[in-house]
């Protein structure tokens, strides 16, 4: 089977500092893959390189049969590879509706109205706050808006970068329930998280990054079943 997202030998960094050291990673259609690792492991740098926000030094990124190595971020979005960034990055002075509409600026613009209604069905709280400025919403509501904005582009693969960061335990539970529902609906998801336990509960496969290299790839049960791996890479 050809992977939907196929990353081979990705290297890169900032200035002279190498952050990624030859990363290989694959996500198949309809699959939930967890990318785990501590702060500074290279997770966000990998996301930026895959999405065209930061140039790679070497290696390749293929997505849905297309070579996206070095592609402009607009072309990455047009291909259906959509990222929900760490920290939500909603537009605080725009309304909830305006934030949603911007999600379809590059892709799926002709179905914008229908997709807004779909988002309001998935996230009823966003309908209630349709005219509210995004910056006045709670952290959990902003995260819902960020995910809904990403879904407005009708992604083929959705990258979620630390979606549970800064949320209360109750909202974390809600967030992982939503992510599971997206996967169950057939959407391929690359989940980049520090919440190891809940990520592995819903993932089909997992990768662990350490110092810019993949130290483990395989089934969640294999990772959790090894005392050595759990201690070395997960702190469990």
TrEMBL record:
Residue spans crossing the bilayer: none
Keywords assigned: Amino-acid transport, ATP-binding, Cell membrane, Membrane, Nucleotide-binding, Transport
GO molecular function: ATP binding; ATP hydrolysis activity; branched-chain amino acid transmembrane transporter activity
Residue ranges of domain ABC transporter in the record: 5-236
InterPro entries, A to Z: AAA+_ATPase, ABC_transporter-like_ATP-bd, ABC_transporter-like_CS, BCAA_Transport_ATP-bd_LivF, P-loop_NTPase
GO biological process, one term: L-amino acid transport
Gene3D superfamilies: P-loop containing nucleotide triphosphate hydrolases
Cross-referenced PANTHER family: HIGH-AFFINITY BRANCHED-CHAIN AMINO ACID TRANSPORT ATP-BINDING PROTEIN LIVF
UniProt family annotation: Belongs to the ABC transporter superfamily.
Name this protein carries in UniProt: High-affinity branched-chain amino acid transport ATP-binding protein LivF
Record gene name: livF22
């Amino acid at each position: 089977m050809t992977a939907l997202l196929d990353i081979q030998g990705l290297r890169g960094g900032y200035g002279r500092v190498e952050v990624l050291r030859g990363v290989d990673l694959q996500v198949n259609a309809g699959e939930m893959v967890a990318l785990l690792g501590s702060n500074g492991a290279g997770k966000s740098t990998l996301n930026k390189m895959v999405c065209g926000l930061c140039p790679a030094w070497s290696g390749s990124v293929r997505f849905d049969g297309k070579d996206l190595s070095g592609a402009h971020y607009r072309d990455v979005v047009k291909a259906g590879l959509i990222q929900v960034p760490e920290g939500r990055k909603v537009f605080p002075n725009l309304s909830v509706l305006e934030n949603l509409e911007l999600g379809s600026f590059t892709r799926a613009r002709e179905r914008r109205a229908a997709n807004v209604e779909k988002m309001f069905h998935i996230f009823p709280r966003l309908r209630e706050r349709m005219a509210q400025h995004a910056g006045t919403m709670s952290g959990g509501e902003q995260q819902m808006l960020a995910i809904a904005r990403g879904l407005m582009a009708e992604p083929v693969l959705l990258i979620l970068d630390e979606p549970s960061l800064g949320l209360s335990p109750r909202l974390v539970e809600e967030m992982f329930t939503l992510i599971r529902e997206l996967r169950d609906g057939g959407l391929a998801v690359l989940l980049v998280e520090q919440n190891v336990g809940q990520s592995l509960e819903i993932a089909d496969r997992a990768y662990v990054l350490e110092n810019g290299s993949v130290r483990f790839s395989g089934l969640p049960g294999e990772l959790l079943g090894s005392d050595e791996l759990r201690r070395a890479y997960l702190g469990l």
